[in-house]
C-alpha cells in the first residue's frame, strides 16, 4: 500500500507512520516510507521529510533519509538547505510575527514567538490587552475548544520548527552558506517566522570594492551597525552570511555589539556577540594533527550521546559486547571544507546492567583529529551519499579557524554537560578491567588527569553575561566574579558557585550544598527582565541560586536548611 502511494494528500497519514517507525527502529519499513514520501515531491512532502529528520537518530535510517531529501530537493532545482528555506511554514503569522483568532465577545487567542524563540499562545480582550486566563463561559462556546486545541498544537509545532531553523542557520558557519541581498529579503525577511529569527542576528556583509561590515536589521527593514547607528541600504550585489566573532577585523566589534544589544534589549536566538570561541593552543600545535584538549574526561554515556546526536554528530553506543578498542570514533562531517572530525572514546564503568544490555554507563574520551573527506559527487545536491572518510589526518593549523572553533565548542558543550564526578586514580587508571586496551596510541599517560570537569569557554562566557546582568539584580558588594566562579556573601554563610557546573560550595568548609532546580523555580520571576540569551538553562539556574543565597536568611526549604544547619553544627 505504501509503495504505490503517490498522492500529496497521503503525506498527512504517512508522516505519523514514519514517526512510529522511528520509535520502533523499523529500518526497512521506514526506508520504504521515506522513499514514497520523497517520490511525491511536493513542498508538503519535503516538509514531512524535514520533520522526520529532526526526530531520526538511527544512522542507517538517517543516511537514507538524507539521500531521499536531497533527491527530492534536486528535483525542484534546489539544494537541501535551499529547499528547507523554501518549505518553511509561516503558521499564519503576520508581519508582526503574530496570529490572532477571534473567539467570543472580542476575546482572541494569539499565537506568537516568545523571546526564547518558542511558540506561545495567550489571550487578549477586544482592546488587545492580555488576559491571564480565558473566562469559563467562553470555553463552553461552540467551536472555541477546537480553536484552542489547534492553536496549542501550532505553538508546539512552531517551537519545533524554530529549533530546526536555528540549528540550520547556526550550521551555516561550517557549511559556508551565503545569501545575496535580494534572495535574503525574499526567503528570510519577508517570511514571518524566518524574519523573526533574521532580525535578531548579526550579519556579515560583503560588497564589491568595499570593506566587510556587520549589521542588524530592524523591523522596518533599515540597517544599523555595531554602534547602533543607522546604515545605508544594501545594494543588490551585497552578499550576506551569519557573522561570527572570529570574523571580527577589529577586536572591539564583539564588545560594541554586546553593548548595543543590551541597550536595545535584544535577545539572540543564536548567540554571536557572547559566543564562546576556541583557537589552537601551543600544546595542540605540538601534538598536531591530534588534539588532546578534551582527553581523559569521564562522561555519562547516555547523556553525551543525546547531546551529540542533537548537534549532528554520529555516535555509536559503546557496549561490553563490542571491544571498545575496535569501536568507531564519533564523527562530524564538514563537507564544505573537505574534512571530518573523529573523536575517540572508550567504555568505562559498569557494563553489566540489570537489563543485560551490556551498555557502558560511562565513557572516557581520547584524541580529536580532523581528517580528509572526499566527495565523489556534490554533497549539497546528493545528500552526501558519495562522501568518503579517508582516515588521512590534517594538520590542525590548516583547519579553518571558524570550523575549528565550532567543532571544539560542540565538544566542550558535550563534555561540560555530561561530565561525571567519577574519578580514577591515575596510577590505577589503566588497570581498570572494563577499560582494557582500548587506547592503542601512546602519549595519553603523559596527560594530567583533570581534577574537575572542564568547562572551557562556557564558564568564561557566563562570566561575561553576569557582568552585564548583575547591576540589574542590585547585589551590591555581595557578589564577586572570579574566572570560573562567582562568590556570594550571604547573611548566614559565604558561597562559591562554579560557572560551568552550577555546583554550590559553602565556604570555608568546602562543603557542597545540593539545591534542586525545581526548588528554586519560583525565583524565576526575580530574574532580570532582559537576558541576552535564552539557550542556556544552566545560566538561569545560576542566577536563581545567586538570588536565593544573597538572602539565605529567608530560605524556607527544609532540605536546604538541614544542609546549612549541619554545616553550622560542625563549626
Tell me about this structure.
With 571 residues, the protein is α+β, with helices and mostly antiparallel strands. 37% of the residues lie in helices and 17% in strands. It contains 18 helices and 21 strands. The chain has a six-stranded antiparallel beta sheet. Helix 1 (11-24) runs parallel beside helix 3 (43-55) and helix 2 (27-40) packs parallel to helix 4 (59-75).
Outline the secondary-structure elements.
Layout: H1 11-24, H2 27-40, H3 43-55, H4 59-75, H5 80-86, E1 98-102, E2 108-113, E3 119-124, E4 130-131, H6 136-139, H7 144-170, H8 172-175, E5 179-180, H9 181-189, H10 194-198, E6 203-206, E7 213-217, E8 223-224, E9 230-231, E10 239-242, H11 253-264, H12 282-287, E11 290-291, E12 298-300, H13 301-310, E13 330-334, E14 339-348, E15 362-375, H14 379-382, E16 387-393, H15 401-418, H16 456-473, E17 479-481, E18 485-489, E19 494-498, E20 504-507, E21 511-513, H17 537-550, H18 558-570
Antiparallel strand pairs: 1-2, 2-3, 3-4, 5-10, 6-7, 6-10, 7-8, 8-9, 11-15, 12-15, 13-14, 14-15, 15-16, 17-18, 18-19, 19-20, 20-21
Helix pairs in contact: 1-2, 1-3, 2-3, 2-4, 3-4, 13-15
Amino acid at each position: 500500500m505504501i509503495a504505490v502511494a503517490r498522492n500529496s494528500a497521503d503525506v498527512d497519514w504517512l508522516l505519523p507512520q514514519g514517526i512510529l517507525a522511528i520509535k520502533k527502529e523499523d529500518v526497512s519499513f521506514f526506508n520504504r516510507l521515506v522513499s514514497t514520501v520523497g517520490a511525491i515531491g511536493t513542498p508538503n512532502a519535503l516538509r514531512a521529510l524535514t520533520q522526520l529528520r529532526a526526530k531520526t537518530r538511527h544512522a542507517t535510517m538517517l543516511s537514507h533519509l538524507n539521500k531521499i531529501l536531497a533527491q527530492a530537493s534536486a528535483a525542484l532545482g534546489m539544494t537541501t538547505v535551499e529547499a528547507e528555506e523554501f518549505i518553511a511554514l509561516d503558521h499564519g503569522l503576520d508581519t508582526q510575527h503574530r496570529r490572532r483568532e477571534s473567539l467570543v465577545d472580542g476575546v482572541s487567542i494569539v499565537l506568537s514567538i516568545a523571546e526564547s524563540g518558542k511558540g506561545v499562545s495567550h489571550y487578549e480582550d477586544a482592546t488587545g490587552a492580555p488576559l491571564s486566563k480565558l473566562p469559563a463561559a467562553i470555553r463552553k462556546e461552540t467551536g472555541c475548544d477546537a480553536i484552542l486545541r489547534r492553536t496549542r498544537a501550532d505553538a508546539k509545532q512552531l517551537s519545533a520548527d524554530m529549533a530546526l531553523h536555528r540549528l540550520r542557520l547556526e550550521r551555516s558557519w561550517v557549511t559556508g552558506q551565503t545569501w545575496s541581498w535580494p534572495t535574503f529579503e525574499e526567503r528570510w525577511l519577508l517570511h514571518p517566522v524566518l524574519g523573526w529569527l533574521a532580525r535578531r542576528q548579526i550579519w556579515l556583509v560583503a560588497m564589491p570594492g568595499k570593506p566587510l561590515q556587520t549589521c542588524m536589521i530592524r523591523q522596518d527593514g533599515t540597517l544599523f551597525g555595531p554602534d547602533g547607528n543607522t546604515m545605508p541600504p544594501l545594494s543588490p550585489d551585497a552578499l550576506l552570511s551569519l557573522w561570527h566573532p572570529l570574523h571580527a577585523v577589529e577586536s572591539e566589534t564583539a564588545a560594541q555589539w554586546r553593548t548595543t544589544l543590551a541597550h536595545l534589549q535584544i535577545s539572540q536566538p543564536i548567540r554571536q556577540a557572547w559566543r564562546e570561541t576556541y583557537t589552537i593552543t601551543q600544546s595542540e600545535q605540538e601534538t598536531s594533527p591530534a588534539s588532546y584538549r578534551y582527553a581523559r574526561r569521564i562522561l555519562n554515556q547516555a547523556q553525551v550521546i543525546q547531546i551529540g546526536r542533537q548537534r549532528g554528530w554520529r555516535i555509536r553506543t559503546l557496549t561490553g559486547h563490542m571491544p571498545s578498542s575496535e569501536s568507531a570514533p564519533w564523527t562530524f562531517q564538514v563537507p564544505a571544507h573537505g574534512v571530518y572530525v573523529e573523536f575517540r572514546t572508550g567504555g568505562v564503568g559498569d557494563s553489566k546492567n540489570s537489563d543485560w544490555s551490556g551498555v557502558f554507563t560511562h565513557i572516557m574520551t581520547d584524541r580529536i583529529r580532523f581528517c580528509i573527506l572526499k566527495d565523489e559527487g556534490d554533497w549539497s545536491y546528493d545528500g552526501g551519499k558519495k562522501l568518503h572518510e579517508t582516515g588521512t589526518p590534517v594538520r590542525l593549523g590548516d583547519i579553518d579557524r571558524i570550523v575549528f572553533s565550532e567543532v571544539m565548542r560542540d565538544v566542550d558543550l558535550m563534555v561540560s554537560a555530561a561530565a561525571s564526578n567519577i574519578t580514577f586514580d591515575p596510577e590505577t587508571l589503566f588497570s581498570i578491567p572494563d577499560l582494557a586496551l582500548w587506547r592503542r596510541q601512546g602519549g595519553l599517560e603523559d596527560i594530567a588527569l583533570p581534577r574537575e570537569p572542564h568547562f572551557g569557554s562556557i564558564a568564561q562566557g557566563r562570566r561575561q553575561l553576569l557582568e552585564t546582568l548583575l547591576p540589574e539584580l542590585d547585589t551590591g558588594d555581595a557578589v564577586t566574579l572570579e574566572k570560573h566562579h562567582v562568590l556570594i556573601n550571604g547573611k548566614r554563610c559565604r558561597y562559591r558557585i562554579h560557572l560551568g557546573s552550577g555546583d554550590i560550595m559553602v565556604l570555608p568548609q568546602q562543603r557542597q550544598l545540593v539545591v534542586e532546580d525545581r526548588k528554586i523555580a519560583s525565583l524565576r520571576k526575580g530574574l532580570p527582565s532582559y537576558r541576552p540569551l535564552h539557550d542556556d538553562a544552566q545560566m538561569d539556574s545560576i542566577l536563581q541560586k545567586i538570588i536565593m543565597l544573597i538572602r539565605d536568611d529567608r530560605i524556607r526549604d527544609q532540605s536546604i536548611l538541614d544542609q546549612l544547619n549541619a554545616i553550622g553544627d560542625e563549626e
